[in-house]
Structures are given as C-alpha cells and as structure tokens.
Amino acid sequence: MSVRHIRPGDRTEGSPATPGMVREQAIATEGMWSGIVHTDAGMTSGWHHHGDYDTSIYVASGALRMEFGAGGHDVIDAVPGDFLHVPRGAIHREGNPTAQVADLVVTRAGTGPPVVNVDGPEPE
Question: Is 60 left (phi over 0), alpha (psi -120 to 50) or beta?
C-alpha cells in the first residue's frame, strides 16, 4: 500500500446529489468518505441524512447554517474554523447565509449509502 496524493483536479463528483450542494469526492474507502462540499451563496440544501455514517464538517470559508431536530427548528450557525458533528441518521439541511460560496471539508465514517434525501424531519 502506498500514500495517495489527491489534487483538486483529481476530485470527482461524489455521492448522490442533494439539491443546493455540490460534493467533490477526494477519498472513498471501505468505511470512509472525504471531500469538499460547495454551497452557493444564499442556498439551502434539501433535507437529507447520511445513513449509517457519522459526519465531521469543517467550515473552511463562507458560513454554514445547519437546521435539524423536531420540525427542523434547531439551528447552528457555524463560521470558518468551526467543526460540526452530524450523528448517523440525523435528518438535517445545510444553508449558506453569506454572499460568498461556502466551502466545507467533510469526512464520513460508516457503511452503506452516504446520502439519503428525505422530505424532512418529523414534526414536533
């Protein structure tokens, strides 16, 4: 086995699409996915979860508004330098409330489909 070097041009479109987000896959191995997610200014993704994956998100630029919980009423606003942990199966959607593209570094650990699009969280 050898160490791999993945340059920006080596990344591929990753995992199923979620409306409002572009995922670029850098690394995919059995049990792990890592890449960059771009969210346009003012954009909000569709509701989704990551199945049996735990997800780590690092905000590299822009901002991230994470909506989750019963009825989608819980909100975290994250800025560059912040990390978020999204537990497996947590239904959420991500938005970018800024005027610039948000770039997020995402790593997932788990198995199965990495993205499952849904209609939304359970009501309160």
Answer: alpha
Could you tell me the domains of the chain?
24-111 (2.60.120.10)
The amino acid that residue 66 corresponds to is M
Q: How many CB atoms are closer than 10 A to CB 96?
A: 26
CB-based contact 68:90 (threshold 8 Å):
yes
CA-CA distances (angstroms) from residue 25 to 10, 22, 70? 9, 10, 30
Extract the runs of DSSP E, i.e. beta strands, from 1-124: 12-13, 21-29, 32-39, 48-49, 52-61, 64-68, 74-78, 83-86, 92-95, 102-111, 116-117
pTM: predicted TM-score of the whole model, two decimal places:
0.86
The answer to whether 61 and 97 have CB atoms below 8 angstroms apart is no
Contact assessment for residue 39 and residue 102, using Cβ atoms and an 8 Å cutoff: yes
pLDDT tens digit string along 32-83? 989 999 888 999 988 989 999 999 999 999 999 999 999 999 999 999 999 9
